[in-house]
Design brief:
Largest sheet of chain A: 7 strands, mixed
Shape of chain A: globular
Number of strands of chain A: 11
Order of helices and strands of chain A: EEEEEEEEEEE
Helix content of chain B: under 10%
Number of helices of chain B: 0
Largest interface: A-B, 31 and 25 residues
Structural class of chain B: mainly beta
Oligomer: heterodimer
Number of strands of chain B: 12
Distance between the termini of chain A: 36 Å
Radius of gyration of chain A: 13 Å
Structural class of chain A: mainly beta
Order of helices and strands of chain B: EEEEEEEEEEEE
Amino acid sequence: DGGITQSPKYLFRKEGQNVTLSCEQNLNHDAMYWYRQDPGQGLRLIYYSQIVNDFQKGDIAEGYSVSREKKESFPLTVTSAQKNPTAFYLCASSQTPGQAYDEQYFGPGTRLTVT
Amino acid sequence: GNSVTQMEGPVTLSEEAFLTINCTYTATGYPSLFWYVQYPGEGLQLLLKATKADDKGSNKGFEATYRKETTSFHLEKGSVQVSDSAVYFCALSSPDTGRRALTFGSGTRLQVQP
């Protein structure tokens, strides 16, 4: 079955450590996205990539980094510079980055807790 | 910039009641509009979409009509079930922005009681 996988589902880290969240898709989609969700809030865009080896900052990119070396993979690193990293992180993809009508497909999410 | 405003929740209904969740938007150009649903601890699933004015999106008994004159995309269902309990997000994608990422509302939690 085609879809998006995120691992792990739950992740715990100590403050000051970098952590990388995995996102893999086998939908053959060109565009991929990372969102952050906080309790009772909508999703906010961290980074997005419309093509391999290219990515752009979203609304809350500070303290995060990404890479897009392969079409199917878009890992997100939460660095120690991120002041409030505890959140639910969602990865998404869409087929045609140039089309506004193109819906996004979401992974199951990773819940990161930093103490 | 683009923005989406949803009615605050939680919305609590009895089974078989009529559901309306209001959504209004601000966007440049002619955005596409979406409703997503999120069940506890899971990612988002597309519920329905509409890509131009007066389009009606529908799925699983849910409907929403793209109203450009009122900049609205209200979600409706005639008879809710306990299994519809979830958080519902209204979102838009504007063709006038370069990134094509979605702009989300804050979500509305629906609780359906048996």
